[in-house]
Amino acid sequence: MTTYTAPTNDMAFILHELLEIEKQEIPGYSDMTPDFTSAILEEAGKLNSEILHPLNTVGDTEGCRLENGVVYTPKGFKEAFNQIRSGGWPGIDCSPKYGGQGIPAVVAMQTSEMFASSNQALAMYHGLTHGAQSAIIAHGTDAQKETYLPKMISCEWTGTMNLTEPHCGTDLGLMRTKADPANDGTYKISGQKIFISAGDHDLADNIIHLVLAKIPNGPKGIKGVSLFIVPKYLINSDGTLGARNGLSVGSIEEKMGIHGNSTCVMNYDGATAYLLGEEHKGMRAMFTMMNEARLGVGLQGLGQAEVAYQNAVSYAKDRLQGRNITGAVYPKKTADPLIVHPDIKRNLLSQKSFIEGARAFTSWSAMLFDKYEREHDHDADGIVSLLTPVVKGFLTDIGYDMTIQAQQIYGGHGYIEEHGMSQFTRDARIAMIYEGTNAIQALDLVGRKLGKDNGKHALSFFEIITNFIKENKDHSELNEAFLDKLKVGSKDLQAASMYFMQNGIKNPYDALAGSYDFMHMMGHVCLGLMWSKMAKISLLKLEKNCSNSEFYETKIKTGKFYMERWMPMTSLHLNRIQSGSETIMSMTAENF
Amino acid sequence: MTTYTAPTNDMAFILHELLEIEKQEIPGYSDMTPDFTSAILEEAGKLNSEILHPLNTVGDTEGCRLENGVVYTPKGFKEAFNQIRSGGWPGIDCSPKYGGQGIPAVVAMQTSEMFASSNQALAMYHGLTHGAQSAIIAHGTDAQKETYLPKMISCEWTGTMNLTEPHCGTDLGLMRTKADPANDGTYKISGQKIFISAGDHDLADNIIHLVLAKIPNGPKGIKGVSLFIVPKYLINSDGTLGARNGLSVGSIEEKMGIHGNSTCVMNYDGATAYLLGEEHKGMRAMFTMMNEARLGVGLQGLGQAEVAYQNAVSYAKDRLQGRNITGAVYPKKTADPLIVHPDIKRNLLSQKSFIEGARAFTSWSAMLFDKYEREHDHDADGIVSLLTPVVKGFLTDIGYDMTIQAQQIYGGHGYIEEHGMSQFTRDARIAMIYEGTNAIQALDLVGRKLGKDNGKHALSFFEIITNFIKENKDHSELNEAFLDKLKVGSKDLQAASMYFMQNGIKNPYDALAGSYDFMHMMGHVCLGLMWSKMAKISLLKLEKNCSNSEFYETKIKTGKFYMERWMPMTSLHLNRIQSGSETIMSMTAENF
C-alpha cells in the first residue's frame, strides 16, 4: 500500500519565503499570513492523506462501470466527494459572489497539488468543474451565472469539457457536432464527443456539459465553432431539476490509468443547449477553460511525481540490499538499506530536485495569474501565458519520467500492481496527452507565445533572469553553484530564440522542428531560476543562524544537484535545435 | 488493433551488408548466404505477424489464471506455442547434438527480435527455456545433458530461472532457500522464490526449474549459493515422467504488463533437486544464463520499440489532423495526415534512428558472441561482456521511452487500451527491471567490466572506433555528418573513463554516482559507431548507382538524424559525470 503526506513545510516555504505572498500588494494577499495558510494546508493535507489517498488503489482496481445508461464510480468515491464538497475545497479560489471562498490561486494551487497527488482520478471530478465554472464566469450572461455558478462552485453539480470527436482532437476545425437554432433562442445539439472525463457519474445531481459545436451555415473550420452549456437535466425556472436532456453515455473507455474517472463517449441527440458567449467564438471561450486546465494538468505531473517519490524514498530506506561500497553503514543489519547507494541517491535527488523546483514554478505561475486576475496586470498575464505551455508540457513529461524512476527504485516490486507504483506511472501518463498533447504545447509556445506582442513577454521573462543574476552577482557561493549555471542555461535559451527568429521566418520548419526541445529547455531555465532564488533565500537564512538549518542546507544541496545534473540539458537542446529541419524534412512519408 | 511486419529488409542489410556474415571466417558462417537467411527471416516473419502478434492483445486482456494449483495461459497460446515448437524456433541456435539447428546467434538474434516484437509475453516461455538449456550445456554432466537438453531444445519441456526471494533480488547473498543433501546425491530444496516468469503453465509437459539455494554450512553470503535442477515432474530412468515434485505455485502476480506470461510465486517444500555444476559455485553457473538473458532482454527493448514504431507510423500516415505550415500537402483531403508535421517527423525519426542503430548493435554483439562460442576468441568475449550491460540497460531504457513516444503519436487514442499502444509501453517497462535493474547494469559496466583485465577490453573497444574513423577520414561526406560527431562522442566517453580512473580509486562514489550516465553515454557511442558504419556502406552503394537507392538514401538520412539529435547526449552525460559525487553523497537518508 502506498501512502501520501502533504508536503506542507515545503509549500509554506514557497508561499512565505520564496514568494512572500503576505507582503505582496496583490488584492487579497495581505490576509494570507503563515497562520492562515497553514490552517488551510493542514486541513487539506489531512483530507488528502487520510481519506482520498487510501481510495486511490480502490479507484484503480475497481474502475467505473456503466449499467443501463448510468455510470457508477468506485466504492467510497461518493463519500469522499461529499467530504471534498463539505470542506468547500472545489470553490476555494472561486468568486465569493457565487459561494466561493475567494482565496488567491497561489494558495489554492497548493491544495490542488495535494488532490493531484493523492487521487488524481477522483480530483478530476471537481477539477473539471472548476474549469467549466471559469468559462461561465468569463463568458456567461448574468442569468447563466446565477443558474449555474453556485451549484457548480459547491459541486452540487459538476462540469465537463466536450471537445474531441472520433476523427478530431487537435484539429477541432474538422468537428461535426451540430447545434441547430431552435425558435426560443436555444439550440439542439447532435453529435458524438469522445474522451469526456467525468462525462457521467453518480457523484452529483446534475452535470453541466460545455460542448463545442457548429451552428449550420457559419464560417468554415475552427472559426465556425461555438460553445454551449448542455445540462444533463434541464433546469426549471425555479432552479429545480427538470426533464432529462437528450444526451447519453455511449460507453466508458478502457484506459491505461485514471480508472477511477469515467471517460465517456457522449452522444448528443437533439439535446437542448444554451449558447455560452458569442456565436462562432467558441474557441475563445474554450481557451479560458483550457489555459486554466493546462496549468492544472501541469500540476498533475508534479503531483504524481511527488507521491511516487515519497513512496520510493520510504522503500529505499526500508529495503535492505547490498552494502555501501566503502564499508557497511549498518553492520548489524543483514545488509544496508538501498538509500546508502550513490546511484539510488542520484535517482532520488533527480526526483526531489525536479519536484521542489516544479512546485516553486507552478506557485510562481499562480501568483502571476493572481496579478492578472486581481489587479489586471497585463504584463503578468503575458508572462503566465508564455509559461502555461511550459508548465503543461515540461512538468508532465518530466513528472511522468520521475514516476518511472520512482517505480524503478522498487525493482521487480515496482512492476507488481500490489505495491501501487505502477498506478502512479499509468495515471501520470495521461497528463502528457490531454488538454493538448505536449507536442501541441510546444507549438503553442514557439509558434504563438514566444513572438506574441512582438516578443515583449519573452523579453520580460529574460529580463527577470538577467536582473536576478545581476542583483546577486556579489554573492560568491550563490554565483558559483547557481548563477553561473543559470546564466549558461539562459544564454542557451536566448540563442535558441535567436535561431528561431533568424531562421524561422525564412523556414518555419526550422522553428517547428525545434519546438519540443525549446519547451524543455525553457522548463529547465524556469526551474533553474526557481532554484537560484530558493538557494539565495536559504543561504541568507543560514547566514543568520536560523534554527531549522537542516531544512535550508537540504534545499541548497537539492538545488545544487539540479544545477549540476539537470541544467546542462539546455546545451543538448540548443544543439538539437540548431541542427535545424533539413534532415527531418528530407524524410518523405514513404521513407518511414 | 495493432499489426506487426517483420523488418526483414533491414535485417538482411545488417547481416549481409553491415556484418557481411557469409564472408566471415567464423565456423558455420559461410553457410549463411542471403538466400538461406532470407528463407529463415521470411518464415519467422510470417509466424510472428500472422500467428503470434494477433494473440498479443488476447494475452494482455485475458492474462494467466491459477485454478486449483494449475496455471492456464490465455486462449490461443497453446496452439501458437505448438507452432513455435514445430517450426523448430526454440532450438534454432542450439547444439545439433541435442536436436538444435546450430544456426549462428547473429541470425537467431533476428528471429528473437521478431518474437520480442510480436508477443513478448508468449516469447518468454521459450526464451527462458533457452537460457536454462545454456546453463545445462555449460555446467551439466553428460547424463544431465542427455536427460534435459533434447526435450528443452524442442520445448517439449520448458525452463525457468529462480533467483529472487521476497526479501532479496539484487543482493542474492541474503537468500534463505535451502538445499539439504539427501543420501543419494540429490538435495531437498525448501523455500520461496518470487517473480518466476513462466513458473507454471499449460504449454509443456514438464518444467525444468533452475533454482539457486544454499547448502547448509557452506560459505556465507553469495559465495555459499549453489544452482540446482528441479523438475516439476521427476524423470524416470527411461526418460518418462514420474511423480510430481515437491513444489507448487503460490500465486500469480498481478503485473503492469506481460500479462500473457505467468509470473509465479514458487513454493519449494522439500523438492528433489540435482546439483548443476559445483557446490557453492551457483552464481558462476547462473551468470551463464544471466548474460544470455541480458542480451535477450536488451532485445526486448528494441523489439517493443519496433512494433510500437510501426503502428505509430501507420497512424501518422492515416490520421488527418491540421495542415502543413507552408500550405496543404493534400488540399483535397479535409486535413493533412499527421506525418507532414515537423514535430511528428522528429518524433518518428527518433524512434527509427534508435531502432535501426540498436538492431545493428545487437547483431554486432551477437557476432562477437559467435566468435567466442565458435572459435574461442577471448578478445571477442571480452568486448561482448563489456557490451552486455549496455545492450541490456541502454536499449531497454531508450526502447521503453520510444514506446512512450510512439504512444504519444496517437494522442488520446494512445491512452485507450483498445488501440494497443498502451500495452507496448506496459510490456516494455519490465525490461528495465528484470535480469538486474538497469542501475545494476550500470554498476556492472563501471564497477567490473570497464576495468576488467586491466581495461584491455575497453581499450579494444575504443580502438575499434578510432581505427574506423582513421580508415575513413578521406570520405568528406561521411566525415562531416558522421565521423566528426562520432569522434566527439568517443572522446567524451574516453574522458569519462579517465575521470573514473583518476577519481574512482580515491573516491569510489565518484564512479558509482556517474555509472548510470556512463552506461547511456556508451550506448550512444555504440549506436553512433553502428550508424557511421551503415552510412559508409550506404554511401558506397549510392556511389555505385545501385538499383534500390531509396533504401540507402533513407539510411543516410536516418543516421544523420541520430548523429544530430542523439549523439550530443554524450556531452550532457560527461558533464553530469564530471560533477562528481559530492552533492549526491552530502545527502543523508533523513534529507530525503
Query: By helix and strand content of chain A, what is the structural category?
Result: alpha+beta
- Identify the CATH class of the domain at 285-444 in chain A: Mainly Alpha
Mean pLDDT of chain A: 97
Please state the oligomeric state of the protein chains shown: homodimer
* Silhouette of chain A: globular
Low-pLDDT parts of chain A are: none
Question: How would you describe what is shown here?
Answer:
- 2 copies of one chain form a homodimer.
- Chain A is α+β, with helices and mostly antiparallel strands and 592 residues long.
- Helix content of chain A is 57%, strand content 12%.
- Chain A contains 19 helices and 11 strands.
- The first copy, chain A, is globular and about 80 Å long.
- The interface between A and B is large, with 93 and 93 residues.
Question: What's a concise summary of this model?
Answer:
The structure is a homodimer of 592-residue chains. The first copy, chain A, has 592 residues and is α+β, with helices and mostly antiparallel strands.
Topology:
The structure is a homodimer of 592-residue chains.
Chain A: H1 8-18, H2 34-52, H3 54-62, E1 65-67, E2 70-72, H4 77-86, H5 105-118, H6 120-139, H7 142-153, E3 157-162, E4 178-181, E5 187-197, E6 206-214, E7 225-231, E8 233-235, E9 241-244, E10 247-252, E11 263-275, H8 282-318, H9 342-375, H10 378-409, H11 412-415, H12 421-429, H13 438-449, H14 452-471, H15 476-504, H16 508-543, H17 549-566, H18 569-578, H19 582-585
Parallel strand pairs in A: 3-6
Antiparallel strand pairs in A: 1-2, 4-5, 5-11, 6-7, 7-11, 8-9, 10-11
Helix pairs in contact in A: 1-2, 1-9, 2-5, 5-6, 5-8, 5-9, 6-7, 6-8, 8-9, 8-10, 8-12, 9-10, 9-16, 9-17, 10-12, 10-13, 10-14, 10-16, 13-16, 14-15, 15-16, 15-17, 15-18, 16-17, 16-18
